[in-house]
Amino acid sequence: MTNAEAFLKTAQIDGETIGSLYDQWLPQELISLADDITCVTFSDALSDRKAVWYFNESREYCGSHVEVVQRLQPSDILSSVSPWFDALFRNALSATPSALGGARPLPLFLATQLAAAWSVRMMADLRQVQTALIEQDREIARVDDKPLSARDVRRLLGARIGPETLVVLSPFSGAPLRSQISFVVDHQLIHRFYDPELDCAFYLAWWERQLDAPPSFYCPKANVVVSDETLAGMLPSLILGWYLGMPEHAEMIAQAQAFEARDYGLGKASSLMSEVNAPSAPLPAVPDAASADMISESWAFLHQHQPAGHIPADASKDLKPSGKLIDRLRSLVKKK
Q1: Are the CB atoms for 195 and 95 separated by under 8 Å?
Q2: How would you label 252-279 residue by residue, b for 16+ Cβ within 10 Å and e otherwise?
Q3: Does residue 268 sit in helix, strand or coil?
Q4: Domains identified in the chain, total number
Q5: Which residue of 193, 205, 244, 247 has the fewest C-beta atoms within 10 A of its own C-beta?
Q6: Is residue 315 in a domain?
């Protein structure tokens, strides 16, 4: 008997002991977020979907999503993980990553669920700009007194995935930058770039099945996302969740190779200055640790509210998003 199974035998839902689960759902991990908050994660053996149950100090079931809990407040849960996200936001997300001391290993879907709830509260001033609204000579933002111009962002949006390591020009210094790492989360392929002149990271993200489309651009220090994708504002949460669920991220980024012109040849390096769209190519292999199958349940909840009493029979369906991102997320929080 696993620790999760043993815990469930002593836990209760609405004052009743937990008799059985749906056949396809199996308990996986027992995770203690705090002395009075415990999580049990589940996996659907047929579809590999994930779910989580939250319990209080009396081992009473409190809910299956951080935003919909009873006998606990979302702030109770988030207070246990906020120090981790604070550190990740300042370092790994925005600049130079460092080892995250004291963080508990979390499965990716749970990490992104918590990251989404944290971001709603702490990153509500994030701006999302549609590409049609940025004029060529417009200044979108500034980072350390360096302008982020629409012209430079448009050049980045012309980048496409190819068989070689992705190289782009920094929108701040103009230096060629090589993608440090790439990973897949929630069916999005995300590339991280870093400009050492400003100690500034930025990201380009593509939907896995739309690699020939323009990417979404996100720069944490500029606090802006440039994209026509409705869900592009979720990028900070996806990245934060992946960093939390992948403790090795700091080492991976530290070991990433910087751009070397001799690795690509002068012609390829100089061709970065042109704004020509390269033809699409097959998606390069992504590390196993960043499997696309690890889908965050956070986004499914934010668009399709499920009752908190039981694990739903079908917790992940195609979404049809609409409206403004932050307003929708904030409305969910206010309902609590």
Answers
A1: no
A2: bbeeeeebeeeebeeeebeebeeeeeee
A3: helix
A4: 1
A5: 247
A6: no
pTM confidence score: 0.78
| Domain enclosing residue 221, as ranges | 73-308+322-336
Per-residue pLDDT of the chain (336 residues; tens, 9 = 90+): 899 999 999 999 999 999 888 878 999 999 999 999 999 999 998 888 999 999 999 999 999 999 999 999 999 999 999 999 999 999 999 999 998 888 888 999 999 999 999 999 999 999 999 988 777 678 999 999 999 999 999 999 999 998 888 999 999 999 999 999 999 999 999 999 999 999 999 999 999 988 999 999 999 999 999 999 989 999 999 999 999 999 999 999 999 877 665 555 544 444 454 444 444 444 434 333 333 333 333 333 333 433 333 434 343 333 333 344 455 445 544 444
The SS3 of residue 288 is helix
